[in-house]
Amino acid sequence: MTKLFCQYLLALLFPIFVFAQVDGEDEVYLSGDLIEAKFKGGGLENFGAFVSEEFDYKKVTKEGTMVAAFTIDKEGNVSGIKIVQMLDTESAKEMIRVLKLCPKWEPAKRGGKPVSIEIKYPMTFATKEKSSPLTVVPHDQTPTVNNLTEDNNLYNTAGVEKKPDFPGGLQEFYKYISKNFRVPNVKGLQGKVFVTFVVEKDGSIANIKVIKDIGHGTQEEAIRVMTASPKWIPGEQLGKKVRVLYSLPISIMSR
């Protein structure tokens, strides 16, 4: 790599803030029990602005993602700084330097009392196109935080406040199944195929299982159709998106 190209790369690498994973203590928190830490009156978007202003991007020598981790203690101090995913030595040193300059946060609270939390903060540096060093990836992503009371439990439809739904409603989903399910060409075939699947927090379909089929490839066909399903509108519990187990009987009646 020539010296001139290196200078271009150093000047044009641009940070993309992805998301920050926030972990509390090893306990289960009830909704509303844990209040997230705040930075200058706001959330991680304010912290991202602080990093962007203080970070010397000339220290970054290549594209990639760096992940820093740090603790916000009960007094709001930043401590326990470490780089959990290294990009290069200089950018790691620079991130540590910036974090050491970080002003106090308003600490997270549980039950009205301050608690310590750990934040994992990734920064991705990239040019828009390898062949065009004069363009950069737009800085259109701001840091967000996984809710401190994030719920990764698996609910069933009877135990969730807002059930997942197919775009346009269940009737549209039934139309999707009817249109795409290829009924085996077996005379007199009839019965029900029972499918279970998980509607994830982002609406994607996962863990597809056929717990009962009627043979002749109906199990494989049910899995194929569900795998190709458009994303759903995820279920919610206490105002937060949650994973929901859904069951579906598919009635088959061949002519």
Task: Write a structural description.
- This protein has 255 residues and is α+β, with helices and mostly antiparallel strands.
- Helix content is 22%, strand content 35%.
- Strands 1, 2, 4, 5, 8 and 9 form a six-stranded antiparallel sheet that branches.
- It is elongated and about 75 Å long.
The parts where pLDDT drops under 50 for at least 5 residues are: 1-33, 128-149
If you average the pLDDT, what whole number results?
74
Helix-strand sequence: HEEEHEEHEEEEEHEEHEE
Gyration radius (Cα, Å) is 25 Å
- Portion in strands: 25-35%
Oligomer kind: single chain
Helix content: 10-25%
Shape: elongated
Helical stretch tally: 5
Q: How would you summarize this macromolecular structure in one to three sentences?
A:
With 255 residues, the protein is α+β, with helices and mostly antiparallel strands. The protein has helices spanning 3-12, 44-54, 89-101, 170-180, 218-227, and strands at residues 14-17, 21-23, 34-35, 64-72, 78-85, 108-110, 113-115, 117-129, 132-136, 154-156, 190-199, 205-212, 235-237, 240-253.
In terms of topology, how is this protein built?
Elements: H1 3-12, E1 14-17, E2 21-23, E3 34-35, H2 44-54, E4 64-72, E5 78-85, H3 89-101, E6 108-110, E7 113-115, E8 117-129, E9 132-136, E10 154-156, H4 170-180, E11 190-199, E12 205-212, H5 218-227, E13 235-237, E14 240-253
Parallel strand pairs: 10-14
Antiparallel strand pairs: 1-8, 2-8, 3-6, 4-5, 4-8, 6-7, 8-9, 11-12, 11-14, 13-14
Tags for this model:
5-stranded mixed β-sheet, 14 strands, elongated, 255 residues, alpha+beta
